């Protein structure tokens, strides 16, 4: 990002002496959460190589092997470790692929939110006046609806306009767009608040006296100093986006069943809960809960560490 | 025995990198009605000294050793209940920021009444009468109206007057004032200091004035301590120290003032800056900045680098400096005799 | 006049005696009333628009000669920092004009102002806030040079940084470190280095030593004086500390409630303060040789700059105020010993 060549050694040594690492070493929950999170991300990313089957490949699906229970339940087939779903897909493989879809949508939506929210927040906070009033009233209006409701309305509209088939084909980018648009105000507000705090510090005045343009002051001077809160809310927002996607999918506005996310897997299994095939819903549900939980725990830890009132220096 | 007797006080802060010693071996005493100044730059430990006198050090700080005898009783061994009685009643404190003492949601009158009723069995009516009298003493314009005002309605100077009135409320023996006028303008500062001095003299109240301003100390106090990096390095009658400082740091501090140099010429600066308490130099903490580590003949005083200096008596003053000890050729005062 | 210095920089005004900076009739008001909707009030059955203003400065005239250090003193709220920030273009004046080297600069566009940005620099009060915490010292010092000399090679930029670091007594290996690793005095050195990096001729210093310890104040003041001698700088020095003024200033302007009440050469002002406020201010400095406070007692406190008093702004606290002082605003008049004072009593000869 910066112009000077990075001094790798000194950065590393600075990190090793930092408070961030110090508190991480003392926080067992943070360590466990990070391990679980990395493990989940790794298996999701490596799904095509790890998964015993490719759930997107219709040729590999054996409809006769549908609704088989996981290995510890009687009547299971050892080929399907976690059992199979109603269409006969290997549940373990489907979960791995589903987690991948969920994570892609989660991170993608947060990237979009951050792009919008950080830009609007910076503009509103630094320029103030009418720009600020307009952007923040917009955010207020949007926040007065539940974000999920906004997503449902936008999702339903998009689905109605493009039709089910097109929607299914572009489901991932469209969901990123929907969730990204629904949740940018959180970012914008946080960024604006910290920009307002930074804007009156003397280093900003010093930059103005030097004659730098507003754009350079915003991005080069103020933005790097608002990164800690951005970092903290990003973790929470990733968890929220994954949940939002799951909720949308559960309502039938999310990923199609042919490329299931964790949410649409839960939904597809929901119909079979009554017939005794509980694992189709419960196992992906458990994965979703664990994934969201570890992200939130990491976020909590980060917030405590980066809280400027607790940590000075 | 003096009214207040501090002996070999050690205060530490338990931090994650280990203990940091904020005060080392601080000893001084205060007679009834005497005014003492504690001078030092930021980080010298003067505010810690003030807080520890009332045993008000907040965690992670704690008193690690030494004693504070007030009126014959050791404050470091007192129960919380007895301490509360001493605070407020016998010793009160004035802070730099009046808002630390004033509760923003209570009127001035209510705060004063509450304070009085906590310590004395009197009616609200009597308490208000006392409060009004104290506000008159601190020369606040229209004192009766102030009782029903809130702290934010008053100017900075007026708030500090209210604080002084509250400090005087229970007729204490000692007032500890920690940089009471630093946040105020010069003209207001002069008035507040004059008021404080006048009240202390009139009611025979002792004053411990903590400040970085040597001018204020010379105007208000009779004796002074100079602190550097958690230790007292020089103490004695204010006039003598100001006119003829002996410790090289005190000399440097006074000579660095703009009024000590001809206008436009170079100021006599002390090189370097105060060391941080968790990384003190060996021997005398001032030796890396001191011009007297080398003798006039070019040889080095090893003691400055190796050994923490003890106090020697010089005139009416006590100085902790190897150079002064060598020049006077005096033995250091045995630790148990330092009061 | 002791303050004239030989003109040296290229592109300067033809007469060497013309002031470097002229401030004329400068006013700055801040609105207290918020935006349009918040200003609407319901009064006597009608909706009216009400606006309240803080009158931070009300008609300030000052000249700064080349090579001098003009100190502006006054208590908090007197508008001295607002003058500094308005001169540097951080605030837009409500009225009046500022001329630099004969050219009006308060209404220039960002682009047209750029050449002046290089010639005028500023040092701030709080060394803990004036350095960007996310930039190394090297980056902090290189940035302004790159901006103002886009054609310089990286080697030349580095060389300039090294020179300016050496001139303020910063070790070369500080460059890779961040601001928070240094003490207040060291940070203020870095801030001074940043201001000097683009070779300015005029520096506005807004309380540059107020946040520092006594022994460090002396170091920084010495540094500022050395820089003035070596680089022939002109200073506008804002402070509340009269002892520093006496040592540092060529001339002194005393401000009270947004107005200049006295301007004089430093020695003259300290030998014979004319304005009653200046006298009170000087008597209030705690001096080492005093055994007791010996100040002139003023009545009351500084009024708020929201509702300014009529006439002379000082009349409510002045022991010499009469009917005319309450009615009529005094103008700055020249005194016999080279200063200017805004006081009816001095003008009429009522006080010395």
TrEMBL record, chain A:
GO CC entries: plasma membrane
UniProt entry tagged with the keyword Membrane: yes
Keywords: Cell membrane, Membrane, Transmembrane, Transmembrane helix, Transport
Annotated TM spans: 28-51, 101-129, 141-161, 167-184, 222-243, 278-299
GO biological process: transmembrane transport
Membrane topology: Multi-pass membrane protein
Sequence similarity: Belongs to the binding-protein-dependent transport system permease family.
Protein name per the record: Peptide/nickel transport system permease protein
UniProtKB/TrEMBL annotation, chain B:
GO molecular function, one term: ATP binding
Membrane topology reported for the UniProt record: Peripheral membrane protein
Cellular localisation: Cell inner membrane
Domain ABC transporter, chain residue ranges per copy: 6-254
Principal place of residence: membrane
Catalytic activity: a dipeptide(out) + ATP + H2O = a dipeptide(in) + ADP + phosphate + H(+)
Leader sequence residues: none
UniProt keyword annotations, A-Z: ATP-binding, Cell membrane, Membrane, Nucleotide-binding, Transport
Protein name: ABC-type dipeptide transporter
Protein family: Belongs to the ABC transporter superfamily.
EC number: 7.4.2.9
A Pfam cross-reference name: ABC_tran
Enzyme class: translocase
InterPro entries, A to Z: AAA+_ATPase (IPR003593), ABC_Ni/Peptide_Import (IPR050388), ABC_transporter-like_ATP-bd (IPR003439), ABC_transporter-like_CS (IPR017871), Oligopep_ABC_C (IPR013563), P-loop_NTPase (IPR027417)
GO biological process, one term: peptide transport
Species of the source: Halomonas ventosae
GO cellular component, one term: plasma membrane
SMART domains to which the protein is assigned, alphabetical: AAA
TrEMBL record, chain C:
SUPFAM superfamilies xrefs: P-loop containing nucleoside triphosphate hydrolases (SSF52540)
UniProt family annotation: Belongs to the ABC transporter superfamily.
CDD domains per UniProt: ABC_NikE_OppD_transporters
NCBIfam families for the chain: oligo_HPY
PROSITE patterns: ABC_TRANSPORTER_1 (PS00211), ABC_TRANSPORTER_2 (PS50893)
Keyword list, A-Z: ATP-binding, Nucleotide-binding, Transport
Superkingdom of source: Bacteria
Species assigned in the record: Halomonas ventosae
Gene3D superfamilies: P-loop containing nucleotide triphosphate hydrolases (3.40.50.300)
Protein name per Swiss-Prot or TrEMBL: Peptide/nickel transport system ATP-binding protein
All copies of domain ABC transporter, residue ranges: 42-282
InterPro entries: AAA+_ATPase, ABC_transp_ATP-bind, ABC_transporter-like_ATP-bd, ABC_transporter-like_CS, Oligopep_ABC_C, P-loop_NTPase
GO molecular function, one term: ATP binding
PANTHER family from the UniProt entry: D,D-DIPEPTIDE TRANSPORT ATP-BINDING PROTEIN DDPF-RELATED, TRANSPORT ATP-BINDING PROTEIN
One Pfam entry name: ABC_tran
Record-level GO BP terms: peptide transport; transmembrane transport
């Amino acid at each position: 990002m910066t112009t000077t060549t990075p001094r790798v050694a000194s950065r590393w040594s600075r990190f090793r002496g930092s408070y961030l690492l110090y508190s991480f070493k003392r926080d067992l929950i943070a360590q466990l959460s990070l391990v679980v999170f990395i493990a989940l991300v790794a298996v999701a990313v490596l799904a095509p190589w790890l998964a015993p089957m490719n759930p997107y490949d219709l040729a590999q699906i054996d409809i006769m092997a549908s609704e088989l229970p996981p290995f510890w339940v009687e009547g299971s087939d050892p080929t399907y470790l976690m059992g199979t779903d109603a269409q006969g897909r290997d549940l373990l493989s489907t979960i791995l692929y589903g987690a991948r879809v969920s994570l892609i949508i989660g991170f993608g939506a947060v990237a979009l939110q951050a792009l919008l929210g950080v830009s609007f927040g910076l503009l509103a906070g630094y320029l103030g006046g009418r720009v600020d009033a307009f952007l923040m009233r917009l955010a207020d209006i949007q926040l007065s609806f539940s974000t999920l409701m906004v997503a449902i309305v936008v999702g339903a509209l998009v689905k109605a306009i493009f039709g089910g088939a097109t929607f299914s084909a572009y489901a991932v980018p469209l969901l990123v767009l929907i969730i990204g648009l629904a949740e940018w105000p959180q970012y914008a507000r946080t960024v604006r608040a910290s920009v307002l705090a930074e804007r009156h510090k003397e280093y900003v005045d010093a930059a103005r006296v030097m004659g730098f343009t507003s754009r350079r002051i915003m991005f080069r001077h103020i933005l790097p100093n608002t990164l800690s809160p951005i970092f903290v809310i990003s973790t929470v927002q990733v968890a929220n986006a994954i949940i939002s996607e799951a909720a949308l999918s559960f309502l039938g506005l999310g990923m199609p069943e042919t490329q299931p996310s964790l949410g649409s897997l839960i939904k597809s299994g929901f119909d079979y809960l009554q017939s005794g095939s509980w694992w189709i819903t419960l196992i992906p549900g458990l994965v979703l809960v664990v994934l969201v939980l570890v992200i939130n725990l990491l976020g909590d830890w980060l917030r405590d560490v980066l809280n400027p009132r607790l940590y000075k220096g | 025995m003096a009214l207040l007797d501090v002996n070999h006080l050690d205060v530490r802060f338990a931090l994650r990198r280990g203990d940091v010693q904020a005060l080392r071996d601080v000893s001084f005493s205060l007679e009834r009605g005497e005014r003492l100044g504690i001078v030092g730059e930021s980080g010298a430990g003067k505010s810690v000294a003030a807080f520890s006198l009332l045993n008000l050090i907040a965690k992670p700080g704690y008193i690690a050793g030494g004693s504070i005898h007030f009126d014959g009783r050791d404050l470091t061994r007192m129960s919380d209940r007895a301490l509360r009685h001493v605070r407020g009643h016998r010793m009160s404190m004035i802070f730099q920021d009046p808002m630390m003492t004033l509760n923003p949601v209570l009127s001035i009158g209510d705060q004063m009444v509450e304070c009085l009723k906590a310590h004395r069995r009197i009616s609200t009516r009597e308490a208000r009468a006392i409060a009004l009298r104290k506000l008159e003493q601190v020369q606040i314009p229209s004192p009766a109206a102030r009782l029903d005002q809130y702290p934010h309605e008053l100017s900075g100077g007026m708030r500090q007057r209210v604080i002084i009135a509250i400090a005087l409320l229970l007729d204490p023996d000692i007032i500890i004032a920690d940089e009471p006028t630093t946040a105020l303008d010069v003209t207001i500062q002069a008035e507040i200091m004059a008021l404080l001095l006048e009240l202390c003299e009139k009611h025979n109240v002792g004053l411990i004035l903590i400040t970085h301003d040597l001018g204020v100390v010379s105007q208000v106090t009779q004796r002074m301590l100079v602190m550097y990096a958690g230790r007292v390095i020089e103490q004695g009658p204010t006039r003598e120290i100001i006119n003829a400082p002996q410790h090289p740091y005190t000399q440097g501090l006074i000579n660095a003032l703009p009024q000590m140099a001809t206008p436009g010429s170079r100021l006599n600066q002390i090189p370097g800056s105060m060391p941080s308490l968790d990384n003190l130099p060996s021997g005398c903490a001032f030796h890396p900045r001191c011009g007297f580590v080398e003798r006039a003949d070019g040889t080095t005083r090893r003691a400055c680098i190796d050994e923490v200096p003890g106090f020697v008596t010089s005139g009416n003053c006590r100085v902790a400096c190897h150079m002064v000890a060598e020049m006077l050729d005096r033995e250091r005062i045995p630790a148990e005799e330092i009061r | 006049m002791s303050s004239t210095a030989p003109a040296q920089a290229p592109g300067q005004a033809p007469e060497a005696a013309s002031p470097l900076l002229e401030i004329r009739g400068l006013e700055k008001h801040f609105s207290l009333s918020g935006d349009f909707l918040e200003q609407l009030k319901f009064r006597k059955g009608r909706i009216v628009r009400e606006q309240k203003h803080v009158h931070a400065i009300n008609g300030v005239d000052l000249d700064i000669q080349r090579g001098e250090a003009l100190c502006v003193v006054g208590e908090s709220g007197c508008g001295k920092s607002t003058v500094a920030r308005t001169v540097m273009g951080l605030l837009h004046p409500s009225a009046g004009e500022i001329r630099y080297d004969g050219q009006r600069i308060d209404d220039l566009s960002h682009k047209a102002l750029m050449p002046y940005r290089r010639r005028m620099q500023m040092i701030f009060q709080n060394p803990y806030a004036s350095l960007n915490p996310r930039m190394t010292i090297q980056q902090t010092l290189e940035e302004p040079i790159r901006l103002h000399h886009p054609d310089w090679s990286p080697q030349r930029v580095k060389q300039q940084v090294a020179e300016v670091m050496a001139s303020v007594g910063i070790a070369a290996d500080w460059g890779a470190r961040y601001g928070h690793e240094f003490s207040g005095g060291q940070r203020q050195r870095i801030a001074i280095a940043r201001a000097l990096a683009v070779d300015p001729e005029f520096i506005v210093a807004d309380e540059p030593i107020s946040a520092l310890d006594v022994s460090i104040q002396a170091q920084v003041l010495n540094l500022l004086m050395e820089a003035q001698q070596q680089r022939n700088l002109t200073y506008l020095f804002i402070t509340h500390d009269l002892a520093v003024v006496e040592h540092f200033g060529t001339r002194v302007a005393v401000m009270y409630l947004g107005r200049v009440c006295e301007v004089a050469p430093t020695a003259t002002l300290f030998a014979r303060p004319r304005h009653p406020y200046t006298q009170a201010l000087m008597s209030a400095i705690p001096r080492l040789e005093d055994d007791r406070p010996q100040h002139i007692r003023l009545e009351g406190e500084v009024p708020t700059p929201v509702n300014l008093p009529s006439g002379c702004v000082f009349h409510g606290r002045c022991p010499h105020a009469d009917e005319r002082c309450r009615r009529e605003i005094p103008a700055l008049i020249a005194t016999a010993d080279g200063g200017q004072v805004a006081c009816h009593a001095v003008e009429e000869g009522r006080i010395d």
